[in-house]
Design goal:
Low-confidence stretches: none
Largest sheet: 26 strands, mixed
CATH class: Mainly Beta
CATH superfamily: Single-stranded right-handed beta-helix, Pectin lyase-like
Structural class: mainly beta
Number of strands: 34
Number of domains: 1
Helix content: under 10%
CATH architecture: 3 Solenoid
Number of helices: 2
Mean pLDDT: 96
């Protein structure tokens, strides 16, 4: 039997609201829940505890590791059959101190705005989520989720305020969501190597459709915390506007052998003023050891239990206008190249007023400006009806690619 809880118009300051199973929570238009917890008063989720079998049970999570975090404004743990609906607002009140010193742990790490953990059959529809203390919507270890017709809005300069980050989740639908955030709009994750090697729980079967993504660092991002793998991702009929990157995959040595990214499809996408539309970066440096020789070297290293694997990307009907840096930047590991990359019916247009910049967060790369495709350490690339406008120099910069097929014609070996 479903319970119902209705919140009428008005502004309500509140600390964490914990969800229960079999519940519909409705926020009337004009209703705002304002997060009032602080570093001094907020409840805390432990990184992990013990279950009845004395096994580790993971709860709090910060950047892919089981760490103590403050509870969200709306928090669900081990709940099912939950609906959060209406036209009201969840306001994280991030400016009251949560955005100060974002990389410093103060008692615990910053809270999310909406978070569910170990949960199933959750539907969030119609509401606005804004001013999040950190990641805005964070489903973790959860399945069968729907996020429909939402507005997710955070200031452009608010730190780590990703829009929607499914982490180690299965069967997720993100439909008709408007994003304007201070970091990545959508970031699909599955933990760092501690959790990835223990749980090996991928994020998979995620569909993103009819979404508008604005002003974030990346529109749809995979990683960098992806040690459990990310598989079977479909992104279609979306608009990307003034993000730094369109598709952005961030990984690196050390994510582990379960860190497999495969079967990623983008189709019917329009991008406007996206600096670099497509990026796959296997040398991502934003970790404490990110600038170490092990992470950054372009020399071939042995493949071992720490080596990630990237394969099977398909891009179809992608239209990009007023880009600046590069059309695509794909840089695989020399010891584990990217496998199978295809682009069909894609147009990359550059503004003639472009400014130079780096296409990816990795060490020892130059600035680019109005470059075409930069491809390095890939097994097979297939291009069909791919065009470039206002590119400076050779539109195809290729190195260490075994097979390149352009409009059905096999090109020379670029190894």
């Amino acid at each position: 039997m479903m319970g119902e809880f209705f919140i009428p118009k008005g502004t309500y300051a509140t600390k964490t609201i914990f969800l229960k199973s079999n519940l519909t929570l409705e926020l009337e238009k004009g209703a705002t829940l304002l997060y009032s917890a602080s570093f001094e008063s907020g409840a805390i989720l432990p990184g992990y505890t013990k279950n009845s079998n004395h096994e580790e049970y993971y709860l709090g999570s910060w950047e892919g590791n089981p760490l103590d975090t403050f509870t969200a404004l709306i928090q669900g743990v081990n709940v099912s059959n939950v609906n959060l609906i209406g036209e009201g607002v969840l306001d994280g009140n991030g400016s009251i101190g949560w955005w100060d010193f974002p990389k410093v742990r103060n008692v615990a790490w910053r809270p999310r705005l909406f978070q569910i953990i170990h949960s199933h059959h959750v539907n969030v529809q119609g509401i606005t989520l804004q001013n999040s203390p950190s990641w805005t919507v964070h489903p973790l270890f959860s399945d069968d989720l729907k996020f429909i017709d939402l507005k997710i809005i955070n200031p452009k300069d608010s730190p780590n305020t990703d829009g929607l980050d499914p982490e180690s989740c299965h069967r997720v639908l993100i439909l008709g969501v408007h994003f304007s955030v201070g970091d990545d709009c959508i970031a699909i994750k599955s933990g760092k190597i501690y959790l990835g090697s223990r749980l090996k729980r991928a994020s998979e079967y995620i569909t993103i459709r009819n979404c508008s993504m604005n002003f974030g660092h990346g529109a749809v991002v995979i990683g960098s915390e992806m040690a459990g793998g990310v598989k079977h991702i479909l992104v279609e009929q979306c608009l990307f506007n003034e993000t730094d990157r369109g598709l952005r995959i961030k990984t690196r040595r050390g994510r582990g052998e379960a860190a497999i990214v495969e079967d990623v499809t983008f189709r019917h996408i329009e991008m406007e003023k996206v600096l670099t539309p497509l990026v796959v970066n296997c040398f991502y440096f934003c970790d404490p050891d990110g600038h170490s020789e092990y992470v950054k070297t372009k020399e071939t290293l042995p493949v071992d239990y720490r080596t990630p694997d990237i394969r099977d990307f398909c891009f179809e009907d992608i239209k990009c206008r007023h880009s600046e840096i590069a059309a695509a930047y794909f840089y695989g590991l020399p010891e584990k190249p990217i496998e199978r990359l295809s682009l069909k019916d894609c147009v990359f247009h550059f503004t003639t007023e472009a400014e130079p910049g780096v296409p990816a967060m990795m060490d020892d790369i130059p600035n680019y400006c109005q470059n075409g495709m930069v491809l390095n350490n890939i097994i097979e690339v297939n291009l069909e009806n791919v065009t470039f406008e206002n590119v400076i120099g050779d539109p195809m910069q290729i190195q260490n690619v075994k097979k390149v097929v352009v409009d059905g014609v096999i090109k020379e070996n670029y190894c």
